[in-house]
Design goal:
The chain is of the alpha+beta class. 54% of the residues lie in helices and 14% in strands.
Length: 367
Amino acid sequence: MLSALIATLANNASIPAIDTVKPNSISWSFLKDQSVQLLHTFMQLLPTLLLGIVILVISYLIATPLSRLLIKPVTYMTKSKLVHLVARRGISTLIILLGFYLFLRLAGLTEFAVAIMSGTGLIGLILGFAFRDIAENFIASLLLSVQRPFKIDDVIEVDGRIGIVKKVTARATTLVDYDGNHIQIPNATVYKNTIKNLTANPKMRGHFSIGIGYDNDIRDAQSLAISIISQQTSVLSDPPPQVLIDNLGSATINFTVYFWVNGEQYSTVKVASQLMRELINSFTQHNISMPDNARERILLNSQGEDIYPIASEAKTETTEEINEQSHIQKHKTTEHEHSIDDVSSDTDDIREQADESRDPEQGKNII
């Protein structure tokens, strides 16, 4: 309609050139006729313009509720909030674009409407190449939402980083590691790399090494170690602990101790520390030697006497004093005894810190 109005004005406006005609030559009747004709054309166009505006407003108002209704089948296929949000926004955008297209058609701008729609597709193609990484992360977020290899508050390892999943957006996955740091990993990196979910199976295996001297009975040492480990409440009986010979060192027979704990309740690192302490004390009580690779050199003179006898005596006295102090300190109850014996998992503490910490996307814009 607007194009028809413009064409009518162009055909009827046969006004002479201003430089050859005096201003008084334009009669008031001519201006009146043109005004009346313009008003008449506008009145004919007004109903369709109002209808187009009404359709545009209605499409904007019904976009959200109609999109919620249309994505009902999607909610039965997946419970991912991210997929629901993307589908709802996509449908809402299509409804608004349809209303805008109808408005242009009713306004008589059909060719312009087609050009806009064609340009939108071209622009979308150009933006797709320009923001390829962003589109890749967005698609990866959709795939992660559908496949669900992990969920919020799970402990995962991705790209060599271990942390608790705090948030998954359309661009990145936010982890909180055990140092309290927020780590944002692009979803494309998460999807392409190996994902190790440490929470899916609550049972976790820990291990450490310990060595005994060659003069000890290997079977007795293994039995004693398994007995000590099995007495710990933090260690699971199924699967049972194992004490296996790992290698034969220059001065020791080296064992590798394997044990299982409930990862949601206990920390493998803390339990390993407690078990090593208990094994050392038990081996010492049962006279099981645990030598090291250290060697002592004694320099003798031509008469076969020690060149540094005083130093050797001082060293012996110092060693005896250290052993005595160590024996006394062993039987003391310190104020830090509870923290030393604590073998609980740190996962819940990190989850609390993640809940209390600021969202990295909050705050003022950096630009």
